[in-house]
Every structure is written in structure tokens, then in C-alpha cells.
Backbone:
């Protein structure tokens, strides 16, 4: 609470230290520019010249947030997700608001909420879910909120904010951001609902709204994990799950004016569903694994990269591929079933052999390359003229002998299996 004589939330938000901290955060996060074309690198210079006037408009209520730039990105399960990219100036102000409001709520949020919170992660949410499953809650109510970020009711959200924020200027500015339009196809569309992802404030607002859901689940004594709008409730039977699904659907509709997507939601066994890209084994002591859908989606992304890499220098291609491999391995390194990483390593090497085989093009060139890579001339000749396709040859013994694992490792290919093992060891050493 703010004591007598202390500056209000709005003044604290505009304070020098808070604004400098917000500026550093925006510069670190970078990101694309908004509708005015200003890039992050231009922001500091712009503020030196214009900040006094911007601050005055904010203090007097004359500042109007600019419309966000609409960007549609593919969703993993199909369809698209709308991002609303604010101008870098609005991103700065939203970040400054976030830094002031977050501490007000952070200590009050549920222990079962993991998304967009300091010191919390998707990995913690998945491990907590595993704990519920191994405690005997071997049915899951998998809730999918229909277009959550696009359907947030502004009045309901503002009512939740007003419970703890009594600064009218702060509330008015936040509502201004909620109602700022969306620029799509050269036309600004008015916005009467939703808080599109893309700005620093949107994640905090989503947690503030869904805190009511967390409190209701705690009141009922349920075991659950929520990460942003992904919420799984763990129960002991299908019948209990069906009851929970029905009552939560009504609660969300009546209390928060949110709809459950019944086509994507389900009451099922945890190992038949995915949560944050992970799933679980069906053993008595369930283990974490990368969900099959996540593995196949990763393969699809790599297939596209391999198509783009045809004919390119292999060393440079692997240098560009490495961050994608490390990122995927880092996220899924908490998985306790590891054969998927070994299978992916083998598949990646086969795809690379296939790329090289295609690059050699003609049988005579293939014979020369195989011989140069160590095959005896007769075997190189028979292999080069076998008439089989690239994928078959990529899995055959002659290409495995000519392009062994050590060959790709020397050019910079990392092993997903080894990367996961190393990350697991690092975590173990840190915790010991």
C-alpha cells in the first residue's frame, strides 16, 4: 500500500529509475517496430528530444496510445494467432506500467500459476503436473480457452484491476491500451475486447484476469497447473473430470465471460494429451516425455530448413541450424524418456546425407566423392550407379561409411542427445 505523502502509482511509473529500467528492458528484448516505423535502436534518441512533452501528456491525461500493428502467426495446432505489435514508445510505457503493477499482484498469485512470472517456468509447471499424476490423479481436465487473448472482456478485466489500483490515471491509461485499435490491411479496426499478445503488459493482465479461476480451483481443493491460458486440472476419475469440466465451463462463462473451446478441450488420460509441448508415460510412476505432436512439429520445421539448405555449403548450413537444435534440446531437456533425442539425431544425420547426395547430382561425381571420402573404388562405383533415390542412399551403409557421425560433428553438428545430457548434468550440479 502507498502511505501518506508517498508518490502515487502514476508518478512512480513515470519516475526516472523506473523509466530507465523499462528502456533497458525494451532495448534488450528488441523486437519489430510498430505502425510508426520507429525501431528500438531509435527510441533512446527520440526520448532525449521528446520525453518532456510525452510525460506532460501522460500526467494530464492527453496521451493516446497508438494502434497496434497486426501480425498473424501460425499456431502449432493449426490456425493462426494474432499478435498486436505496439510502437516502441508504447512498448516502453507498457513496460514501465508492468514494473509497477507486477509487484502488487505477484505475492498474491496462486502457487499453481506458472506463466509470465519471475522465477517460474514451463518446466516447473510440467514437473508439478507430473507430481499430480504420480499422486494418483490419473485423469486430466484439459481446458482450452477459445481465443483467450482476443476475447478478454475489458470491463471484467478493469474491474479486477480496480480491486487493487485506485489511481484513476493508471486505470484510464491501461484502458486506453486495451481499446487502442488494430492496423490491418491499411485500416484501423476498433477494439472492444481482447488484449492481443505482443506488448509487455498483456501477460500480466491475463494473469490478473485468470487469478479468479485459480482461486476457484483452490477453493474447491483441486490439483491443477496453469500456464497463461493453458490450464490442466488433475482428478481421480473420468466422472469427476466430466463434473469439473461442466462446472468450470459455467464458471468461466458467467464470472469471466470466457468460453471453453469444447472441440479442443477434453477429459482424458494425461498420456493422451499434451501440456506445454510435453506428455507423460502411462507407467505407474509416470515419466515426462516430449509429446509426439511436438516431435513431429520439430521434424516439419527441420524438413523446411533442409529443403532450403540444398546445394549450400554444409559447414555454414550447420552453423545456422545449431541455434534451432540447441533451443529445442534446451526446452525439452527435462524429458525423462530419451530415445526420442537419439532417434532425432539419427534422422537429422540421414537428412544431411540426403542433402549431400543430392548436391553431388550425377553418378560419376558421386563415385568421385565417395572415393575421396574413403570408400574403395569398386564399392564407390557400385554405390554411385545403384539407381536408387537420395533417401534410400542416405540410409545405406556406403553413405554412412563415407559420411559418419564424426564427419558431421567436425563440421559443427551438435547431438541433441548429448546436449540434453549436458544440460541435465548442469542442473544436477547446480541443485547439489
Residues:
Amino acid at each position: 500500500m502507498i502511505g501518506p505523502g508517498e508518490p502515487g502509482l502514476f508518478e512512480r511509473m513515470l519516475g526516472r529509475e523506473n523509466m530507465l529500467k523499462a528502456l533497458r528492458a525494451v532495448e534488450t528484448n528488441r523486437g519489430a517496430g510498430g505502425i510508426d516505423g520507429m525501431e528500438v535502436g531509435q527510441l533512446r534518441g527520440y526520448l532525449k528530444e521528446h520525453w518532456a512533452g510525452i510525460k506532460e501528456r501522460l500526467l494530464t491525461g492527453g496521451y493516446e496510445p497508438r494502434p497496434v500493428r497486426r501480425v498473424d502467426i501460425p499456431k502449432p495446432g493449426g490456425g493462426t494467432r494474432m499478435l498486436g505489435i505496439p510502437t516502441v514508445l508504447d512498448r516502453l510505457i507498457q513496460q514501465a506500467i508492468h514494473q509497477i503493477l507486477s509487484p502488487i499482484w505477484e505475492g498474491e498469485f496462486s502457487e499453481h500459476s506458472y506463466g509470465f512470472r519471475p522465477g517460474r517456468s514451463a518446466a516447473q509447471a510440467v514437473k508439478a503436473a507430473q507430481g499430480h499424476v504420480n499422486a494418483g490423479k490419473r485423469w486430466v481436465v484439459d481446458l482450452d480457452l477459445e481465443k483467450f487473448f482476443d476475447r478478454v472482456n475489458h470491463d471484467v478485466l478493469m474491474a479486477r484491476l480496480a480491486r487493487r489500483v485506485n489511481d484513476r490515471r493508471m486505470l484510464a491509461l491501461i484502458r486506453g491500451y486495451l481499446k487502442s485499435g488494430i492496423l490491418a490491411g491499411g485500416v484501423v479496426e476498433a477494439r472492444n475486447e481482447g488484449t492481443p499478445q505482443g506488448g509487455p503488459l498483456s501477460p500480466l493482465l491475463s494473469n490478473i484476469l485468470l487469478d479468479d479461476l485459480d482461486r476457484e480451483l483452490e477453493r474447491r481443493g483441486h490439483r491443477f497447473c496453469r500456464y497463461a491460458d493453458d490450464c490442466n486440472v488433475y482428478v481421480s476419475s473420468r466422472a469427476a473430470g466430466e463434473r469439473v469440466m461442466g462446472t468450470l465451463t459455467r464458471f468461466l462463462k458467467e464470472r469471466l465471460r470466457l468460453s471453453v473451446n469444447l472441440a479442443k478441450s477434453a477429459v482424458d488420460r494425461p498420456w493422451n494429451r499434451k501440456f506445454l509441448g510435453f506428455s507423460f508415460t502411462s507407467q505407474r510412476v509416470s515419466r515426462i516425455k516430449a509429446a509426439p505432436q511436438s516431435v513431429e512439429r520439430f521434424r516439419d520445421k527441420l524438413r523446411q530448413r533442409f529443403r532450403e539448405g540444398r546445394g549450400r555449403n554444409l559447414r555454414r548450413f550447420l552453423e545456422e541450424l545449431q541455434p534451432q537444435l540447441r533451443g529445442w534440446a534446451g526446452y525439452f531437456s527435462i524429458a525423462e524418456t530419451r530415445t526420442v533425442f537419439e532417434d532425432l539425431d539419427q534422422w537429422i544425420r540421414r537428412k544431411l546425407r540426403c542433402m549431400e547426395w543430392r548436391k553431388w547430382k550425377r553418378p560419376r561425381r558421386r563415385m568421385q566423392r565417395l572415393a575421396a571420402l574413403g570408400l574403395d573404388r569398386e564399392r564407390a562405383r557400385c554405390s554411385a550407379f545403384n539407381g536408387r533415390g537420395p533417401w534410400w542412399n542416405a540410409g545405406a551403409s556406403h553413405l554412412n561409411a563415407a559420411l559418419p557421425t564424426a564427419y558431421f560433428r567436425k563440421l559443427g553438428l551438435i547431438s541433441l542427445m548429448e546436449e540434453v545430457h549436458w544440460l541435465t548434468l548442469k542442473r544436477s550440479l547446480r541443485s547439489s
